[in-house]
Amino acid sequence: MDIEILSLSSGARQAKGTAVIIDVFRAFTLEAYLFAQGAEKIYAIGSEEKARTMKKEHPAYILVGERAGKKLPGFDYGNSPSAVRAKDFAGQNFVHTTTNGTQGIMNAVHADRILTGSFVNAKATASYIRSLHPKDVSLVAMGWEDHCTEEDELCALYLKSLLEEKPLEDLPEKLDGLRYSEGRKFFDPSQQEAFPQADFAMCTAADLFDFAIEAEKKEDMAVCRRRNVHA
Q1: What pLDDT, on a 0 to 100 scale, did the predictor assign at position 146?
Q2: pTM for the whole thing?
């Protein structure tokens, strides 16, 4: 297995084989919680306009998304996992558009298969990848608005260590340390509306869930589905 770590939208465009599009703060952490709470499908959309059109065509769909971290006007939810915590979404379909994560899926034009990446289901994602026996794996740390961020780069390193079965040292300390880098915004009183403090702990809780998330590209969107992983 040839594993390559790439970054940003340009990295997504270079991704080949099985690509993992990583967005820890917060797109693919949120999707994992939604699936854990019963979501059926999540339509990952690059364009806000397309997302709104899908909502008009399917009023029962739940519209979630952000730009610059803030919930888009008229959307049901933003991109905050704490905002949906403990809600029952059994059988519900979502439309999801974000600044970074969903854009990465759209840009992964050369990948044979696309998975999402976050800490909350990292071990399950690595197990699912190993079950596929891919020749090439591209781990794409999406970052934030075209600059690299510590949480996505760390998640890429963690996934690589899991795939290679080489433990990453001091992961809990490294996760906690994210509060002093990109995670600072979750502790900024002036940014609590967009980045509530509760999101930080939810995004940095490693290996909560026993499923991967696979994104199947269909023209200008991708359909994300839960892939259960059996030990």
Answers
A1: 85
A2: 0.97
